[in-house]
Design a protein that fits this description.
314 residues; alpha+beta; seven-stranded mixed sheet; six-stranded mixed sheet; 6 helices; globular
Length: 314
């Protein structure tokens, strides 16, 4: 049964909330030396935990000598805080469909422990009948301060971006991981475009710092023609990143139809960034194969160079 069937307004949202476990906050990373003036930011939709995040992080660490922040969508988690069974008729409806598949799924908490990264994870929705959920997460070599989550206006599914502050030389950097709805509810698919714009406007109200990085699966099926795109670039909201300028690739979603759904955007109102470059990471040099490091989305990697500051220990 569809999660919205027979439910309206606050009852519908409460049913989504009742099916997920508790947020997770872990501080696991050792002290990090800021020396190069460079920060690496990785953003990736993990396809409900199928993406091999440990492999991608290892590759980034080999290639970039800089602290790393990871913004992920569709992170998978299973622990005792997730209700063993969706409680109540309304809550069972809100669990949604999730057909078990024979694919390995990496738990985001276990991954953070293995990689020794700080973690802030907040679930958005349950994965069907089983005791697991998925949502957005931030992992980082650097301490994560002022972390929080907020619900977006409900369109198709419950969506909960996660935000945190990283203290960099010269001032704070706000990092946000988000995932917008792909479409509207059944019978009102046209609401998808309008719903994403409404969600984006709400998201932008919560991005408060002059220096900010947004990693998101925006699900922009109509690309730059959508109001969401215009909102993200109006008044210098986000002036750098993907695809603010022409890029060497035409898609980030590896399935069909191949579309640019994933974005890594940077806002720098204070002129603190010297250079920012974003690249798409490919498992196969010719972009072949059924998945990309296990996911149906490509990872995006930003290398951000700040203007000269004194070295700082974090």
């Amino acid at each position: 049964m569809a999660p919205w069937s027979g439910l309206e307004g606050s009852d519908r949202l409460e049913a989504w909330r009742a099916n997920v476990g508790a947020p997770v906050a872990l501080d696991l990373a050792p002290t990090c030396q800021w020396a190069s003036g460079c920060l690496a930011v990785l953003s990736w939709n993990l396809w409900i935990g199928r993406g091999r995040l440990d492999e991608v992080v290892a590759g980034v660490r080999d290639a970039v000598d800089a602290p790393l922040v990871v913004l992920v969508q569709e992170a998978y988690r299973m622990d005792e805080s997730v209700p063993a069974r969706a409680a109540g008729r309304a809550a069972r409806r809100a669990a949604g469909g999730f057909t078990p598949r024979p694919h390995a799924r990496a738990d985001i908490v276990e991954t953070a422990r293995a990689l020794r990264l700080n973690l802030r994870y907040v679930p958005s929705m349950r994965n069907g009948a089983g005791p697991s959920d998925r949502g957005n997460a931030i992992l980082s070599d650097l301490p994560l301060d002022e972390a929080g989550a907020f619900e977006l206006p409900l369109v198709l599914q419950r969506r909960v971006p996660v935000a945190a502050t990283v203290r960099l030389p010269g001032g704070p950097l706000q990092v946000v991981s988000a995932h917008l709805d792909p479409r509207g509810p059944p019978g009102a698919a046209w609401l998808g475009v309008a719903g994403r714009a409404k969600q984006t406007a709400h998201l932008l109200e919560r991005v408060s710092e002059d220096l900010a990085v947004l990693g998101a699966d925006l699900n922009l099926g109509r690309g730059r023609r959508e109001r969401t795109w215009r909102l993200l670039h109006e008044d210098g909201a986000f002036a750098m990143g993907v695809p603010a300028k022409p890029t060497a690739w035409r898609h980030t979603f590896h399935g069909l139809p191949r579309l640019v759904l994933d974005y890594l955007l940077v806002r720098d109102r204070g002129g603190r960034i010297a250079r920012a470059r974003v690249e798409r990471l490919d498992e196969h040099p010719r972009d072949r194969g059924p998945t990309v490091f296990g996911s149906d989305h490509h990872p995006l990697l930003a290398r951000i160079e700040l203007r000269d500051e004194d070295d700082t220990r974090w």
